[in-house]
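Let us work through a complete example step by step.
Step 1: write down the sequence.
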Amino acid sequence: MTPGGGSGPMKDCEYSQISTHSSSSPMESPHKKKKSVPKRKWEVFPGRNKFFCNGRIMMARQTGVFYLTLVLILVTSGLFFAFDCPYLSEKITPAIPAIGGILFFFVMGTLLRTSFSDPGVLPRATPDEAADLERQIGNTEDIANGCSSGGYRPPPRTKEVIINGQTVKLKYCFTCKIFRPPRASHCSLCDNCVERFDHHCPWVGNCVGKRNYRFFYMFILSLSFLTVFIFAFVITHVILRSQQTGFLNALKDSPASVLEAVVCFFSVWSIVGLSGFHTYLISSNQTTNEDIKGSWSNKRGKENYNPYSYGNIFTNCCAALCGPLSPSLIDRRGFIQPDTPQLAGPSNGITMYGATQSQSNMCDQDQCIQSTKFVLQAAATPLLQSEPSITSEELPLPGKTSLSGPCATLTLGQPTPPSSMPNLTSDSGLTDIIPLKEEHEGHQFLTPEEAPSPPGMLSGGSPIAHSRTMHVLSLASQDSLHEDSVRGLVKLSSV
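Step 2: predict the structure and record it as tokens.
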């Protein structure tokens, strides 16, 4: 009920408790900032590659021919399984479509494995590594230029290593800023250095290197078998139908067989020839790049014999096809670390590498603290050890601090150790600074009424004698002067 018989009953009010642990406050913006998600390395990969499935699939940027390869294999095999296999399985054996299916899946598996994998891309040098390497190369070239006559041309950036008694040159890559390891080369299409580079194959849409060469070889070898298999049984199908209805009627009854035979006839020669060529390369443990350049000879007696060959065909094939698969070196699905090392500024003509910003900030703070300590010691020592006498020119005024005298002649370069500072709290220190009454009985004293006016109002020739009262005033003024000086020096040192 309302007091005094109000117009109506008071409504029940429920009070909700305000949560003090709420995540939002009135001062915060209604639109919260989204947390920045760290990027993965494939998103900022410097090479000309395309990535799919969050970096799991890696391909070259030019993939048009790869899709043509897929279409040819899928269409030819699909027509064979749809129009030829039913007749052949009924007239000859059901094993024909089964064998064809196994070959088809093996071809597709090896093709996708070759196209979607990392061929062995070498990571590029970081800015610190590149700068250090450039500095080393620059020093070497400067030494060479200094020791030679005018017009000297610096030697090419190469290094020499000995592998199985054969001298191998390591070339410097100006794009990746590294010395390429043996058998590596830079692909101009993908813009990457690839380990054990064989060639760039547009039919698979990727480079062929150390990590996918075995899958490439199994792909072309199995595709050769599949092409020969389809071509042979398509001809068999046409011959069997022509025996029943005639050759022309057989072609009319199965037009898909004609298309399959034409595709297989024109492609089998190149595929089988490519398989034979790579079989030769594997047996001699060479790459396509080395064979085209004529880098090595297969004969051990010659000077340019192949240092990578084991001297046995079976061992070379096992090393290329059955050896351990090396891991990827680029870590394309890894996250980019925010605290990567950066180049530090030069100090005394020497460039320091790998220093982080936090380390330089810590060094600056330490130096600031040390310099502040020395400045404070240098400021306090002359103030406390100076003569506590005041003349008419040095008399401090209320609200005004004079910086003449000791503070004007501070020497910051040679601070006095803290142990030499007098202790103002001890009795001995006070007696040294403030003399006793008995020692100055003959001195004149000034009453408060006789206190001097500001310096502008004093007479020029009236000197003020030393007195016990002036010593006390001198001590108080020095304390205030000391505090103001210390505060100013602390501000200057913090700046």
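Step 3: interpret the result. The mean pLDDT is 73.
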